[in-house]
Amino acid sequence: MTFTPTSALPEVPDPYAVPLETLDVSDPRLFATSSWQPFFKRMRTEDPVHYLKESPFGPFWSITRFEDIKFVDMNHELFSSEPFIVIGDPGEDLPVDMFIAMDPPKHDVQRNAVQPVVAPKNLAEMESLIRERIALILDSLPTNEVIDWVPAVSVELTSMTLATIFDFPLEDRAKLPYWSDLAAGTEEISGGKADPQERLQAMQDMAATFGGLWQDKVARLEAGEELGFDLISLLVKDPQTRDMVTRPMEFMGNLMLLIVGGNDTTRNSISASVLGFHRFPAEFTKLKANPGLIPSMVSEVIRWQTPLSHMRRIATQDVELNGKTIRKGDKVVMWYASGNRDEEVIERPDEIIIDRPRVRQHLSFGFGIHRCMGNRLGEMQLRLAWEEILKRFERIEVVGEPERLRSNFVNGITSLPVRIIPKAAS
Predict the structure, then answer these.
(1) Burial category of 46 from C-beta neighbours within 10 Å (exposed 0-12, middle 13-18, buried 19 and up)
(2) DSSP letters of 228-297?
(3) Calpha distance 334→367 (Å, rounded)
């Protein structure tokens, strides 16, 4: 396939001025400008299972309604995750393997090896540490002056948590979000702006760094030391994955998966929660009056933000869906961002309503065997952040427009200027 850079395409058009058959929701500029909503609304209404013959990412089907997305996600026998779960192909320079892009039984073996890191007991043990770190971060913030919330809070918190679940040196934690940003950030993968050579170098550095950590864990295990429940220790201890380091592309792929999953989902939801309360101030008033709504608010923000806009599958056989025939071998893209705004399932979906009924009914974590492994950890970080915010601050004022990531995969906020107003001294 010849790749056509999105920079060579015309400016973002009026979604209703484009012929339906050429409507392309994979254009990353839709997400960089937060103009994707009407494109998907038209598609949900007029052609919810939509085939695009030509795009920079090749031909693909767009699945845009909630129930259709759930059907595809739940039926891994009909829709395979192999070889990739992003709309574009990483390229031959870095042919990585990762368990989210595998089918059973290999998927199950590798996922089960690392699942204990987010087991309820482990999360309970992490909660006090995460709360302590949030408190330190919030207490260090200047008040009554403009700061950028994203690096000051969202990135700092999630990089600290990632370092903990990997048992990664805390002083080197800035490498983790850097690697995450590059993992799926090139133009041919998601329409991003990351340089392919920089990405390749970063992924090699990541593999070498974690390779050293892996060997250290092996040495400690052989010396009789009891390893913990961090991700590397779990992979080293499991008989099914203890030799993964000898398969570099699989080792690198799973590291990329776990870092992106642990970083992007949480940090962008934390940023989106501040932006969301700016857009819907009555909901913030409601939360202040009843902090018991924080768990419900967390689910609602994650739905409204939809941190990962899509997942892709490949049809393993001809499948009829909503009156369309998807052929064996076709690329099928589940647009979670669209399904989370489906008016047929979610009332007033473009709004944040923190006490909405059935608030956990959303697509952001996926369904079936590939449902997000770390969803409870992400939810816990957002919950703890707002528990501590409400203790300290009267409000967080958004004082400028957010800057967004150019990507059709990670629905990211890269900058959010805010002014923190502290509570009056009692």
Answers:
(1) exposed
(2) -SSHHHHHHHSTTTTTGGGSHHHHHHHHHHHHHHHHHHHHHHHHHHHHHHHH-HHHHHHHHH-GGGHHHH
(3) 11
Residue 394, helix vs strand vs coil: strand
Contact 389, 396 (CB under 8 A): yes
The answer to whether 207 touches 220, Cβ cutoff 8 Å, is no
Cα–Cα distances (Å) from 405 to 307, 308, 333, in that order, read 11, 12, 20
């795009």: which residue's tokens? Answer: 55
- Tokens representing residue 133 in the block: 């770190």
**pLDDT tens-digit profile of 341-369?**
999 999 999 999 999 999 999 999 998 87
Which helix (DSSP H) or strand (DSSP E) does residue 52 occupy? strand 49-52
CA atoms of 369 and 367, how far apart (whole Å): 7
How big is the chain, counted in residues? 426
Spell out the residues 6+ positions from residue 242 whose beta carbon is closer than 8 angstroms to its own: 235, 236
Q: What is the pLDDT of residues 100-125, one digit of tens each?
A: 445 555 555 555 555 655 667 777 87
Rounded to 5°, angle at Cα 130 from 126 and 136: 150
Percent of the chain with pLDDT over 90: 59
- Which tokens belong to 153? 């809070």
Q: Scanning the structure block, which residue is given the tokens 């009829």?
A: 320
Low pLDDT (below 50) residues in the chain: 1-9, 94-101
Helix (H) or strand (E) holding 39: helix 37-46
